[in-house]
């Protein structure tokens, strides 16, 4: 029995030499290993419950399928609503391009409303005025 215990101690010493790089028994290293192991055990104990793949798939399906919860339109309904919105010619009181052009032309043509001279008439009047001699300046 003593020989088997000695053999175990030799194995532990070889193990320690491999891990810590020295031949003496390193108590500090063992204490750190135990502390690391204990902290890992505590982390695992505090971890949430784990799920298998089947349970995960079921939960993801429930989470992904919210079509009955969301108030939304299908593509067909959406297209129909957009078509109704785009066809506002019936609702809005508006002019066609031809009517709009005619109204703008009437608005721009105000020659009969304004008392003005054409360019030819204006030139003739200026020519007449230039030919007038100021008699008071001559005397």
Describe the structure.
By secondary structure, this protein is mainly α. It has 2 domains: 2-64, no CATH class; 75-131, no CATH class. 65% of the residues lie in helices and 0% in strands. The chain has 7 helices and no strands. The chain is elongated, with a radius of gyration of 51 Å.
Write the H/E string, N to C.
HHHHHHH
| Tally of individual domains | 2
Taking the alpha carbons of the first and last residues, their distance comes to: 158 Å
Q: How many β strands by DSSP? A: 0
**What does the largest sheet look like?**
none
Binned strand content? under 5%
Relative helix content: 55-70%
Could you say which overall geometry the principal axes of the C-alpha atoms support?
A: elongated
Task: Give the topology, please.
Elements (H helix, E strand, L loop, with lengths): L1 H19 L6 H20 L6 H12 L10 H12 L10 H12 L10 H12 L4 H4 L1
What are the main properties of this structure?
139 residues, single chain, 2 domains, mainly alpha
Short description:
With 139 residues, the protein is mostly helical. It contains seven helices and no strands.
